Amino acid sequence: MSLAEHYAGTNCAISFELFPPKTSEGIDKLCNNVKRLMDFNPSYFTCTYGAGGSTQGTTLEVLKCVREITGLPVASHLTCVGLTAEQLADYLTEAKTLGVEHIVALRGDPPKGTDKFEAVNGGLHYANQLVDLIREKFADDFGIAVAGYPEVHQEASDAQTDLDNLKRKVDSGADIIITQLFYDNADFYRFRDACVKAGIQVPIVPGLLPVTNFKQAQRIASMCKAGIPSVLESAMGESDEADYQFKVGVDHARQQTIDLVENDAPGIHYYVLNKSDAAEKLLDGLSLGVDC
């Protein structure tokens, strides 16, 4: 099934991203939150994947659990970091056997302690090569998502170079683009317009992460080079009280969601950090999802 099919309807499709917990207790908590997130009619769930294969088993365990709980399609992240093309193909074979329907194909960040990505001997250098590998060896067995960067990838020399790289990933066979998180919708709209002008025709799905405290917002902005609008920064800086900061961050994500829907976003991908409380608050009362 193509990932693009999830966005073919008239409703705004939503999806949720998880990460592999370190303990069995963490997996139990994650699965409980997944059950609560099902109230919002998601189309699918994704789970991140540790660099160099460090969470291969846990990622697949999470996806197997989510698939059993929800009956929905699931997507595994997969990066080129630390793995040969043969090892990547082996992982894809295992994922297929376990019923994983989709792959989020990424180059991956350089390992900790290094500033530059280096492919291992026999490995892949770019995400478009990973998309090529999937399409060559698995044809249409997987839907494929790739990453887009509304505020430009931090390693790209300029916006046009970043856009050219994105188009190569799409031309290699990606079904959709899921963006990195952003906090100003104007950045997404500029990015979407540039993609259309470049001839990119696949669905471009905005990715949102509601910030629930000011320090988190600052840390994430630093890591992802995502700008924080002055109005959000000012509001979150008014009080250190946890409930207040949670409300401000969730309200901002809710307004982002409403605005994106009104401006024809085909869907929204929520980075929920294995929790459900922020997503529940921001989505409450909004008519999104596959059954709406």
TrEMBL record:
Its EC number is 1.5.1.54. It catalyses: (6S)-5-methyl-5,6,7,8-tetrahydrofolate + NAD(+) = (6R)-5,10-methylene-5,6,7,8-tetrahydrofolate + NADH + H(+). The keyword Oxidoreductase applies. Its cofactor is FAD. Pathway: One-carbon metabolism; tetrahydrofolate interconversion; Amino-acid biosynthesis; L-methionine biosynthesis via de novo pathway. One of its GO terms (molecular function) is FAD binding. Pfam families: MTHFR. GO terms for cellular component: cytosol. GO terms for biological process: methionine biosynthetic process; tetrahydrofolate interconversion. It comes from the Bacteria. Keywords: Amino-acid biosynthesis, FAD, Flavoprotein, Methionine biosynthesis, NAD, Oxidoreductase. Coiled coil: none annotated. PANTHER family: METHYLENETETRAHYDROFOLATE REDUCTASE, METHYLENETETRAHYDROFOLATE REDUCTASE (NADPH). Belongs to the methylenetetrahydrofolate reductase family. This is Methylenetetrahydrofolate reductase.
